[in-house]
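Thread amino acids onto this structure.
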């Protein structure tokens, strides 16, 4: 039965109010200790260690021996209580901090899971940009080296066969904006790229390589 009670106590949830109650109890003990020290001070500041007998070994007549002994005994007991309550406060603060950290970690994990559930899964890319020439149409459209393409006009992951599919879209879209979607840093990025003549080669000014998956 005793072991069950101890286990239940171990599992008890510590709250901020519990810690506040322990601190209040500690403050009350400290006030009581101070009050008893005041008693000793009123008795000629005998403290906890001054002898209560005179040089001849007789009980001192200039102080209230009963009051001093009572105060000293009470201080000794209260100091033990004070040590115990400080241990309780330290353990309670540790448990409270651990619980708050566990709750914070759980909230973060749940929020991350919720974000992942809300974000649509990205389709696998079928091509990657491995070069972009400065000043080119691709550069002006914001295409970056390393962008992984998941849509290029009407071409997407499900119907892509080879780079000729992209070339065909480019040839038929000169001077017209083509909607493309890429994966950049794990995020879907939408761009508008207009194939057109410029000072360099081709209509895009970027190099695209297929991804074999």
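Threaded sequence (213 positions):
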């Amino acid at each position: 039965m005793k072991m069950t009670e101890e286990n239940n106590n171990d599992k008890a949830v510590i709250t901020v109010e519990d810690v506040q109650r322990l601190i209040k109890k500690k403050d009350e003990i400290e006030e009581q200790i101070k009050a008893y020290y005041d008693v000793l001070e009123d008795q000629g500041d005998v403290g906890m260690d001054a002898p209560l007998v005179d040089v001849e070994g007789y009980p001192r007549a200039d102080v209230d021996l009963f009051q001093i002994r009572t105060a000293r005994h009470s201080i000794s007991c209260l100091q033990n209580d004070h040590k115990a309550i400080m241990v309780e406060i330290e353990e309670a603060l540790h448990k409270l901090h651990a619980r708050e950290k566990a709750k914070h970690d759980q909230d973060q994990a749940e929020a991350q899971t919720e974000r992942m559930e809300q974000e649509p899964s990205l389709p696998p890319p079928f091509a990657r940009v491995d070069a972009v020439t400065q000043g080119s149409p691709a550069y002006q459209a914001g295409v970056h080296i390393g962008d992984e393409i998941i849509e290029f006009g009407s071409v997407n992951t499900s119907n892509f066969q080879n780079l000729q599919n992209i070339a065909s879209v480019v040839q038929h879209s000169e001077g017209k904006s083509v909607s493309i979607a890429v994966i950049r840093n794990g995020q879907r990025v939408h761009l508008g790229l207009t194939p057109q003549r410029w000072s360099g080669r081709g209509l895009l000014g970027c190099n695209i390589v297929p991804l074999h998956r």
